[in-house]
Amino acid sequence: MNIPSELKYTKDHEWVKLEGDVATIGITDFAQSELGDIVYVEVETVDETLAADEVFGTVEAVKTVSDLFLPLSGEITEFNESLEDEPEKVNSDPYGDGWMIKVKCSDLSEAENLMSANDYKALIGA
């Protein structure tokens, strides 16, 4: 199970990469493996400002549809549009080409509530 140590994580199985006040967000390797083959990623919240824990989109797999929860408050500035044609990138490269959104964070102190890689490993029993 791939859990990069430089990223932060949520109990909802999203990962966060902070660069200044911009967060790149996607779902973890564990999440994509639990979901199975991902067939569709829907994010209709670009240019909207949402609070932490609000739903920013959904990911649809062969077996199920799951909500995506925003880990940090802010404005969603970008959606990885390559996922429209190739949603399977979330399965094959969840921390790289399979990223989902970028957010301009409005409250960086919220990042203190995110889990470290070790905390996330404990959560999933890795």
TrEMBL record:
Gene Ontology, cellular component aspect: cytosol; glycine cleavage complex
Positions of the Lipoyl-binding domain: 22-104
Complexes and interactors: The glycine cleavage system is composed of four proteins: P, T, L and H.
Name by which UniProt lists this protein: Glycine cleavage system H protein
The UniProt record lists the keyword Nuclease: no
Organism whose genome encodes this protein: Seonamhaeicola algicola
Assigned protein family: Belongs to the GcvH family.
A GO BP entry: protein lipoylation
